[in-house]
Amino acid sequence: MDDMLDALDLDDVDDLFADIPEEIRIDALDLPPGMPEQEVERHVDGLLDSNRSFRDMPSFLGGGIQPHYVPPAVEHVVARSEFLTSYTPYQPEVSQGILQAMFEYQSVVCELTGMDVANVSMYDAATALGEAAGMAARSTRGSLFLIPENLAPEKKSVLGNYLWSTDLEVREIPVVDGRVDLDAAMHLAKDAAGIYLEQPNYYGLTENRVDAVKALAGETDALLVMGVDPLLAAVTRPPSAYGADVVIGDGWFGCPMNYGGVRLGMFACKRKHVRQMPGRIIGATSDSDGKRAFCMTMQTREQHIRRERATSNICTNQALAAVAFAAYAGLHGATGLQCLAAENMRRARYAAEQLADIGFELPYDGHFFNEFVAVPPVDAKLLNDRLLRQGIHGGLPLREGPGNALLYGVTEMHTRDMIDDMIAATADVIGGNDV
Amino acid sequence: MYRMASYDEPLLSELPASRDTDDIDELPLPGDLRRDRLDIPRLDERTLVRHYIHLSQMNYGVDTGIYPLGSCTMKYNPRLGERLAARHRMTLLHPHQDASTVQGILEILYHLKEQLCAITGMHAFSLQPAAGAHGEFTGMLIARAYHEQQGEQRSEVILPDSAHGTNPASAKMAGFDVVEIPSREGHVDLDALREALSEDTAAFMLTNPNTLGVFERDILEIAAMVKEAGALLYYDGANLNAIMGKARPGDMGFDIVHLNPHKTFATPHGGGGPGAGPVGVTAELEPYLPVPRVARDGDGYTWSYDHPRSIGRVSHFHGNVPVLLKTYAYLLRMGAGLQQVAEQAVLNANYLLSRLDDGAYTLPYPGRRMHEFVVSAEPLKDKGIRALDIAKRLLDHGFHPPTMYFPLTVPEALMIEPTESESRASLDAYAEGLNAVAVEEPEVLQRAPQLTPVKRIDEAKAARTPLLTWHDLEGQQ
């Protein structure tokens, strides 16, 4: 440091801070001295060790996020430091790698959803929903934004914040037998700027009346926004087939749960809406030799150009999760994803059947994906507390909807033994034999 | 000299598909719900890994070399954070787990908030926002909720013309009209601010040091004026790296701040994210922070929801928790030594500035610079050289260019922030690169880059003819 100070003809590094008024200068931060790296690791590991992970404690929690297997090759790809330590690709000539990976991500999302364009990316599905609603507010004349009554409460809260400044009023479509009442939706649709439906819905149920959804979309100028799980989307009719304008979702491919943390919000739409779309878009073009190349494009929608007239404020997003997403999709391919989707459904169904056998009520008929609602014959909270003592985390207690209900999540991570152990322990609690 | 690898790398969809196929099992779904076709290629692991390794080798990161993007604080990312974030007791946690089973991560988040309070002088933090702009949006929602609670309808947010684009966009998303005031000699123009402030002003958003790298010396007077008008003062933490351990936004009179751990606290930027955008507030504004909040509960920790004046949620779950974990590890490692981080960052910027040829790169506005500086390449314009050409030619010299054309108030702007991570030798080499480029033939610059995996990219064509998926590309052929 001294030699550089000399080069600048300075005596003291503090001279460089002379513009900061004396009144607000501090001598030091009220933090302990730095710790050696090895001690930091020991300290943080000590804290982390008081968490109980899925590996320590099988969990059957649903609620829009579940454990999924992350192939080591995906981990390896996203740990590549050229991806990990790069910034937003403002200089495309030295960022072709991540730009192409993002372009591939866009392509995979469009393939899954049937949309024409996907951005890279929103923070999560909830904020993607907020942005989609904002897009509806800008694009159509309607005054309502319709959502399912049984939308995740967290999503309702986020949506409320994104719509706070708009004239749109959020209106809930009633739910009958766990699914939105599409006839009721039809009545509201004429005043709607946007309609949001999910496949699967918060209760894990698939929306089977896709033709009714299509009719609904045809009846109105409102934007039809569909929320999807990308894995279920691999086996179900793409939202484009029933008239969706925008598709959002939780892009968990290749990402562990991370306590709800790093994954991405998918956001895709039809080409006619692209100028209203939020977020980064990667396009293919060519270099001065005519060679194929990629760059960020349509940036005149974005905040660094358009400032307060931008379609969104988003800048930093979940880019690296998009690389994981595409790599995960490429490792599985269409057939691999479809098999995995089927496996999720089979295991969830097995768990549900076993719960029904020990006295649970399954309040909703029809198909579900990898989450389902079940009502135990005992108090749900008591059940979960007792299971926890045995090292098993039960389903998620629902705050809204049917009383005493639990939302279970079951994926390819839940082995038959795990499910059977959970069922046995649950039966013990119900029978009062667990102590 | 650094040369990037170059491949004619096919798209995922153009690579040879795996010979393995799965028989699709029987699907428990009704036929009319099922899709007919899905066209996603399946690659074997070796093919897929090679594909991404090739791509990664055509990408520049901080691990590759100096990455002095102004405003972005591209410092080195210590690897301990990656190791810790990969622990299964981080990755395999469900956000709805009973608090008794996640005491470790709750304690980490609780202490992280305390660390951030100590660094900024704020009273309380929310860790839920997922990025800087998300933090700004959260801060603006808090400002709105606060004024509404006071029974006031304040509709305007003021910001200087040098502000980051996210500032006006975030204010607008929260429902405010944006009032931009001109700067004077690289500073906030106090007269313009006085003129703009009114009973309609909800907040004044400011970066300090500002985007020119200049500390706003009148900050206390600015704070007094804003407070006098009944408005809130908002701190964009993009440039916090310059002042850690020297001064705190809270002491300057800021009411709301957002921070960028992916800049200031050395978590990797991942090609555009994930980051995080913690928001700190004064005691008066604490009731409005998002829920749930990590709180003490006897000897342990829990999530607390019962905050009736809260704005609610801005993320579905708890934000980008692994990024927050890495932040915590970085702050433990640095501790009070963050002051030396700021000193080295500011010294590095001033040293680099002193090494530049001032015949080619002029420094607009007098006065001291802190952790970054903006030079204008306007003297080279007569030769037909633009800031863009300089940036592209730097690529041929093996360097990542500075931020270009920002802030908008400086013509032919090159905004340079070397961070504390660079050595003197690295700074010397970068200065030599910039100086060398300035005296090269204009045609060489205008043709640059020639030595990168692709040559200069036609960005106008990309916007004119949007090709946004591999389907679009197939349609072209």
Please give a structural write-up.
- Chain A is α/β, with parallel strands linked by helices and 435 residues long.
- Chain A has a domain at 72-329: Aspartate Aminotransferase, domain 2, CATH 3.40.640.
- In chain A, 38% of the residues lie in helices and 15% in strands.
- Chain A contains 14 helices and 14 strands.
- In chain A, the strands form four sheets. Chain A has a seven-stranded mixed β-sheet, with helices on both faces.
- Chain B is an alpha/beta fold and 477 residues long.
- Chain B folds into two domains: 81-336, Aspartate Aminotransferase, domain 2; 338-462, Aspartate Aminotransferase, domain 1.
- Chain B has helices at residues 45-56, 80-85, 88-91, 103-120, 132-149, 166-173, 190-196, 219-228, 249-252, 261-264, 321-334, 338-354, 387-396, 424-438, 442-447, 459-464, 470-476; strands at 124-126, 156-160, 177-181, 183-184, 187-188, 201-207, 232-236, 256-258, 279-281, 293-297, 300-304, 373-376, 403-404, 413-416.
- In chain B, the strands form four sheets. A seven-stranded mixed β-sheet of chain B has the order 1-9-8-7-6-2-3, with helices on both faces. In chain B, strands 12-14-13 form a three-stranded antiparallel β-sheet, covered by helices on one side. Chain B has a two-stranded antiparallel sheet with strand order 4-5.
- The radius of gyration of chain B is 25 Å and the shape is globular.
- The model of chain B has no long low-confidence stretch (mean pLDDT 96).
